[in-house]
Prior knowledge:
This protein is an alpha/beta fold.
Amino acid sequence: MSVLGVIGGTGLSRLVNLRDVHKRVVKTPYGEPSSPLTFGKVEGREVVFLARHGYGHTIPPHKINYRANIWALKEVGVTDIVAIAAVGSINRTMSPGNLVLPDQLIDYSWGRPSTYFENDLEQVVHIDFTHPYSVRLRADMIAATQRAKLTLVETGVYACMQGPRLETAAEIKKLARDGCDLVGMTGMPEASLAKELELDYACCSVVVNWAAGLDGDSIDMQDIEAFAESGMLKVEKLITALASKVTQ
Ligand code: HPA
């Protein structure tokens, strides 16, 4: 049976609906994950939660130990990872407050340890990454949003920027020309590490702002916080609906 892992990002440092909770620190060959793992049940289904930036939201995107995070989830038996990501929108049809399930990504991040396949190899390993997100888990998430009567944009291209600063208006124009719809800072190397460990991984993006230059001269952090808060209520509903249908 599949075991669901949830990686919470900005605005989601715990799952309100998680019952019978206990926490465990998991050590990995790559060091410690961002936070102890929280084990619990949603609708009777086992769920493991990890706060990507730490429980106190203290770890910036480029300092996250992505390898330890994904390794720890695999180590405790997680098979499916739903990664929650607050993002800016570059696409006029994806407004703040919307949930989007990207089907593609472009990686603009740099300098992040990004593979498990680098030391003591018998042979060089290149994973297939044509479809960065699990087709099966994405379908389950689409079905779950329908059951929960939530609106979801079912495709999109996620751009992973380095951060922690937000982008310039010119950078966002370039990302638009590249075909990107959403911009965030944590989607990579998380997705490819999950693929390296053969985990089913999908990203639920929560649009929290218009990307730089799309709506006025600056981005208001208070607006981001407000959209993150309301968006995460929808995410909780999605996770509950997903957990209530146990997939084999
Ligand atoms: N850019 C990059 N990352 C983000 C943004 C943004 O506008 N909003 C939330 N995460």
